[in-house]
């Protein structure tokens, strides 16, 4: 029976179409970029925009529930070797469904920088939530610090990479490539 969209359409056709559209809306409404861990129960430490229907919010427990990575490296901001633990940036972006574009990251002090998604490699930078086995306070460059394994590759010891090593990280926006220029 053909669908006729007019006020003269048979009632069963309209009811069937309504039921179909209701199911479709429910199914699509269930699609979300929000991680399976749910909504934050504690203070939000990271907000991500540009993915899904609205901002995604992460507390520390949600980040710690993701696969973690750690490495030891020297930084130009600290003395001696430092051990960082956190979420590999590549794993985080995979988890929220980001494959291309660029990250515009911002710190609590409003410092911001654009980072190409191509920086998210394995091995590569992590969103660190611990340094030397302890959480980082805001005063101590935390609670999140995007850290590269500087000692692992000379390519990560450049002014460009250092400028992308944002501490007090609290916000990410996923933008199309070149949008920040």
From TrEMBL:
SUPFAM superfamilies: Oxidoreductase molybdopterin-binding domain. InterPro entries: OxRdtase_Mopterin-bd_dom, OxRdtase_Mopterin-bd_sf. Residues 46-149 form the Oxidoreductase molybdopterin-binding domain. This is Molybdopterin-dependent oxidoreductase.
């Amino acid at each position: 029976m053909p669908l006729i969209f007019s006020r003269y359409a048979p009632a069963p056709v309209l009811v069937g179409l309504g039921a179909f559209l209701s199911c479709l809306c429910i199914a699509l409404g269930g699609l979300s970029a929000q991680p399976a861990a749910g909504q934050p129960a504690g203070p939000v430490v990271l907000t991500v925009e540009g993915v899904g229907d609205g901002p995604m919010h992460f507390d520390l427990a949600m980040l710690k529930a993701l696969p973690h990575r750690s490495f030891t490296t020297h930084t130009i901001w600290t003395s001696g070797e430092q051990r960082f633990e956190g979420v590999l940036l590549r794993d985080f972006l995979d988890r929220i469904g980001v494959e291309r574009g660029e990250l515009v990251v911002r710190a609590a002090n409003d410092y911001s920088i654009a980072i190409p998604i191509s920086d998210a490699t394995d091995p590569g930078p992590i969103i660190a939530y611990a340094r030397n086995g302890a959480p980082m306070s805001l005063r101590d460059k935390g609670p999140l610090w995007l850290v590269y394994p500087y000692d692992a590759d000379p390519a990560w010891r450049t002014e460009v990479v250092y400028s992308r090593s944002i501490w007090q990280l609290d916000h990410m926006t996923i933008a199309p490539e070149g949008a920040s220029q």
